[in-house]
Design goal:
The protein folds into two domains: about 150 residues, Jelly Rolls (Sandwich), CATH 2.60.120; about 110 residues, Cyclophilin. The chain contains two helices and 20 strands.
């Protein structure tokens, strides 16, 4: 059992999500940085798809009622056990009753805290993930919450995991469409030829960008239609929005392109530069 002493600004339970339910209006949710969660699970001996905690920016503090093992990956942040510094990206033994604290991130946005046995909250549609848009799954953590744990396995014996800070700029590959023809040729050229910046109002639903406004060639209203992970939707402001894990499954603004892989955006802090290029590069 875990007791939440300080939940931080946004800490959620995440596994690898619930894909396959978009036709029912259910987003996939799940860890934004899937490789980081898989690594944390591997370090503590969990299955790759076990649920852990996605800790956004400001850290959190937890008490383990029983002895166990934890690992922190993803965005780099200080980790301590009862106030004593512990290793980042390593399996860390924790005595019964000890307090585990993940501090404020140093590089990146989201850290992943895995605990041996995994977070064993009740699954919804096959996943334990929190969906911040629809409200499916457990609510974001609050001070005083208690979370059950599964049966722990043998933790990894690894003593070193290579880590690199997230880059200050991202080059994302896109496929134009399905509504690229709703925009002027100049808008498409701007999308492919200018740099954008990640906005501070980004969240698990989408990464909002600021930069050259994308002008529409078609003034008509678009009936709501299905949208997918990575869709680059352009609202009335002309500033693009890239849909992430908790995105809605339908939308009424035109989608100019789709990003092939949104994983790098999980650790893109506000101010990160984003450029787009086509599949020919």
């Amino acid at each position: 059992m875990i007791e939440v002493l300080r939940a931080g600004p946004l800490t959620t339970v995440q596994d690898l999500g619930r894909p396959g339910f978009a036709h029912l209006g259910v987003p996939r949710a799940g860890a934004l940085d899937g490789p980081a969660l898989r690594l944390a699970n591997r370090l503590v001996g969990n299955a790759p798809d076990a649920a852990g905690l996605e800790v956004t920016a400001g850290g959190c503090s937890l008490r383990l009622r029983s002895a166990g093992t934890v690992a922190l990956t993803g965005a780099s942040a200080p980790l301590s056990v009862d106030g004593r510094p512990a290793g980042f990206g390593l399996p860390v033994p924790v005595p019964a009753g000890a307090v585990v604290t993940a501090g404020r991130v140093v590089h990146g946005v989201r850290s992943y805290l895995a605990v041996g046995g995994g977070i064993a909250v009740e699954p919804v549609l096959g996943s334990r993930s929190t969906d911040t848009l629809s409200g499916l799954g457990p609510a974001p953590l609050r001070d005083g919450d208690r979370l059950p744990l599964g049966e722990p396995a043998t933790p990894s014996t690894v003593d070193f995991v290579p880590w690199q800070p997230p880059p200050a700029s991202l080059a994302l590959r896109i496929t134009l469409g399905p509504r690229a023809d709703w925009f002027t040729p100049e808008a498409v050229a701007a999308l492919l030829g200018t740099a954008y910046t990640v906005s501070p109002v980004s969240n698990r639903v989408g990464a909002r960008l600021t930069g050259a406004a994308l002008t529409r060639a078609e003034a008509a209203e678009l009936p709501s239609e299905g949208v997918v992970l990575g869709a680059v939707q352009v609202p009335a402001s002309g500033q693009p929005l890239i849909f992430l894990a908790d995105h809605p499954t339908t939308g009424g603004y035109p989608v100019i392109a789709v990003v092939d892989d949104v994983t790098p955006l999980a650790q893109a802090a506000p101010g990160t530069t984003v450029t787009f290029h086509g599949s020919e590069r």
